[in-house]
């Protein structure tokens, strides 16, 4: 019996990170218990972009074909100048892109991506899913690690993976409580039935309209039945929460300088939800003995690179690979995992901050952006993204 086949693992959080971690560990022979705070496992109604690196990871986890079935394959990523209405740049993600990176760039409904992982977890004999259990604390013991939940119950295992998102309790204890870094950026989200999408904007693309201190993104979802809409703006409002109702008046007011062609889209949704956005400063350690972090709990990021969930999938590949490679020696495997993941995941976090500035540029910065991005060829874009889309989550040594 291999070292991993004897391990019992506890995963805190049943989001994309927690379920993919459970799957990766279970595929290596571990018995996994996932503890989710919500009464039911699920995802919010919104879309997500997934790069080729996410498909590499899904293939490793055994859910690539199921994920591919649910995805919409767009032709290109488009950046429009929201002030002039002109095209700034576009990057084709057609056959040459797929050939180069070995997988497509796609968009998918979150519930579909989460559902693919959930189906695979439910079908796996090694995985137990437990809902309505909010993890509040962990402890390293002589032989393993244990978590305590709000209801007072304890769940013991050989190791614990904190996948409990941007406001992670596991991270709070592990770091001594580092601060969420609120950027003053707020995202409004809606999913629009295709009939409500203006015909002249029904593009098979992930389209970004860059405006002054704001931007909006739209792309088709769910077999072209709906369009995903995300509108983000900078503000000094500090009392915005997460997943709360937003108002049409607020969002229209924030996009007053954006051309009517794009702005009229914001009038369409009957319901908006809004989120305050934030990340955390990079840290050099995710591990405390037999406890480690994964996904947003480890490296919460702004969404501007569209890579947060992709990174969580990659983390799961790397973590399960390291646990197998070190034959179940968890402290060693966790350290090897974080050494591998920290530079890559935080490159996304830091780059995303910069991209926020690029998307929201005003004045001369806007002109610089348009000239810089407008001069790039598809090959230029592909070369600059090789580090990201060419990655798998497996270590460089292993992938070579
Ligand atoms: C507007 C927006 C757009 C985005 N677009 C993209 C994109 O296009 N592409 C992309 O790759 N990423 C995108 N992201 C990022 C992506 O959504 C996240 O990085 C990803 O969902 C993180 O997954 P996770 O499982 O680590 O965390 P979460 O999705 O937050 O999941 C955490 C889970 O843990 C549960 N939980 C929390 N606390 C506890 C606890 N104490 N005990 C037990 N359970 C707990 C939660 O209920 C939840 O189910 C976007 C993010 C935003 C905000």
Question: How would you explain this protein's 3D organization?
Answer:
This protein is of the alpha/beta class. It has one domain: FAD/NAD(P)-binding domain, CATH 3.50.50. The protein is built from 13 helices and 18 strands. It has helices at residues 16-27, 52-61, 64-70, 95-101, 110-122, 169-175, 248-254, 260-263, 308-325, 330-359, 363-374, 378-389, 396-399; strands at residues 8-12, 31-35, 47-50, 76-81, 87-92, 106-109, 127-130, 135-140, 145-149, 154-157, 159-162, 181-193, 205-211, 214-221, 226-234, 244-246, 272-279, 291-293. The strands form four sheets. An eight-stranded mixed beta sheet has the order 5-4-13-14-15-12-17-16. A five-stranded parallel beta sheet has the order 7-2-1-11-18, with helices on both faces. α1 (16-27) links the parallel β1 and β2 (31-35). α1 (16-27) packs parallel to α5 (110-122), α1 packs parallel to α9 and α9 (308-325) runs antiparallel to α10. The longest helix has 30 residues, at 330-359. The protein is globular. It starts with 7 loop residues before the first strand and ends with a helix. The mean pLDDT is 95. The structure holds flavin-adenine dinucleotide. Flavin-adenine dinucleotide (FAD) binds next to α1, β3 and α9.
């Amino acid at each position: 019996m291999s070292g991993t086949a004897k391990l019992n693992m506890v995963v805190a959080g049943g989001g994309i990170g927690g379920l993919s971690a459970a799957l990766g560990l279970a595929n290596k022979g571990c018995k996994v218990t996932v503890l989710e705070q919500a009464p039911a496992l699920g995802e919010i109604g919104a879309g997500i972009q997934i790069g080729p690196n996410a498909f590499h990871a899904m293939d490793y986890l055994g859910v690539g074909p199921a994920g591919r079935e649910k995805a919409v394959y767009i032709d290109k990523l488009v950046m429009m100048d929201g002030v002039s209405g002109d095209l700034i740049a576009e990057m084709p993600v057609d056959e040459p892109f797929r050939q180069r990176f070995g997988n497509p760039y796609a968009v998918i409904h979150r519930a579909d991506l989460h559902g693919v992982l959930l189906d695979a977890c439910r079908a796996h004999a090694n995985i137990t899913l437990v809902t309505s259990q909010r993890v509040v604390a962990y402890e390293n013991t002589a032989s393993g690690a244990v978590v305590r939940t709000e209801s007072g119950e304890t769940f013991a295992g050989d190791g614990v993976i904190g996948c409990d998102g941007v406001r992670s309790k596991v991270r709070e204890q592990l770091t001594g409580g580092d601060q969420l870094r609120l950027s003053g950026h707020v995202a409004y989200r809606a999913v629009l039935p295709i009939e409500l999408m203006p015909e002249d904007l029904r593009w098979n693309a992930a389209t970004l309209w860059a405006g002054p201190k704001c931007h909006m993104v739209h792309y088709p979802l769910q077999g072209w039945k709906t369009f995903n809409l995300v509108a983000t703006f900078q503000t000094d409002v500090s009392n915005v929460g997460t997943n709360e109702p937003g108002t049409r008046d607020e969002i229209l007011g924030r996009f007053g300088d954006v051309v009517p062609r794009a702005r009229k889209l914001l009038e369409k949704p009957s319901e908006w939800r809004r989120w305050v956005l934030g990340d955390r400063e990079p840290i050099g350690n995710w591990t405390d003995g037999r406890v480690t972090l994964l996904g947003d709990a480890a490296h919460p990021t702004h969404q501007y690179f569209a890579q947060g969930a992709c990174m969580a999938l990659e983390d799961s590949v790397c973590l399960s690979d390291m646990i197998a490679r070190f034959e179940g020696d968890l402290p060693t495997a966790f350290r090897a995992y974080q050494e591998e993941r920290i530079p890559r995941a935080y490159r996304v976090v830091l780059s995303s901050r910069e991209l926020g500035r690029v998307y929201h540029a005003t004045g001369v910065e806007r002109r610089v952006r348009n000239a810089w991005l407008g001069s790039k060829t598809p090959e230029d874009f592909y070369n600059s993204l090789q580090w990201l889309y060419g990655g798998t989550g497996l270590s460089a040594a292993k992938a070579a």
